Hints:
Layout: E1 2-6, H1 10-21, E2 25-29, E3 41-42, H2 46-50, E4 55-58, H3 63-71, E5 85-88, H4 94-105, E6 110-113, E7 116-117, H5 119-125, E8 129-133, E9 146-151, H6 155-183, H7 188-196, H8 203-213, H9 223-239, H10 245-259, H11 270-278
Parallel strand pairs: 1-2, 1-4, 2-3, 4-5, 5-6, 8-9
Antiparallel strand pairs: 7-8
Helix pairs in contact: 1-5, 6-9, 6-11, 7-8, 9-10
Amino acid sequence: MRIAFLGLGIMGHAMATNLVKAGHEVATWNRSPGKIVEGTRAAASPADAAQGAEVVWLCVADTAAVENVLFGPDGVEQSLTEGMIISDSSTISPTATRKFAERVAQKGVQYVDSPMTGSKAGAEAGTLLFIIGGDEQAIEKLMGKKIFRMGETGKGQSAKLVMNLQIALIYEGFAEALTLAAKLGLDAENLVQLINASMVKSGVIEYKAPFVLRRDFSPNFPLRLMRKDIRLALEAAKEARVKLPGLETVEEVYDVAVEEGHADLDYAATLQLLEKWAGVEVKGEAA
């Protein structure tokens, strides 16, 4: 299949690499020059990448980036032809997603929102879970371990936001527990073992704890992007007239963490802010 892959960040680069390994003909483009995926054609613009493609696959930072890649100067819209499919694996506004889908539908193009979960390791291993809004049948063979269809276009993005809402809250609870535990003189590694043996256990803690215990805050999912998703969830909640007091409080922590210079670290680095306020440091024996 001929695929244009747009956005070669932490997730996108690995996803494009796996498409090449699977035998697809891939053209790539990235906003910042210099990122190359071996075996692909490096395109000069989104429009150039999309020329002649059957599927245009996006994985970019935010709603504004998706809009610019699709409809800006040298955008994908210039190369759209009837029967093409756009698959957007960015995490963006559900409302904007529906508007984008309506616009490209005028050219006979199908739009599928396909945000994913599984982090950097899942992208590299080809085991991502894709959360689909729209008709997944057209692109399901390109995707990862599992596909969850949530409904019509925009519902994939809605589901992704409520998933990331939970990740942000679960991790923040874990980070606050570790901080208080350190202040009370508890051993962090023993505490994590207790957590994983009890009903408190969660996939978020299982995945993040080893990184935290060795003080590795290199980005699997940058804090600035989780902050973006928190804001998207709060915007969606406002549109739906839903109050999310826990998430509103966590947003404040992320705002301060960005001010402290942690934007490009993993979102687990919110722990460092809690540690600073408490005057402690959480670490395991290997740190």
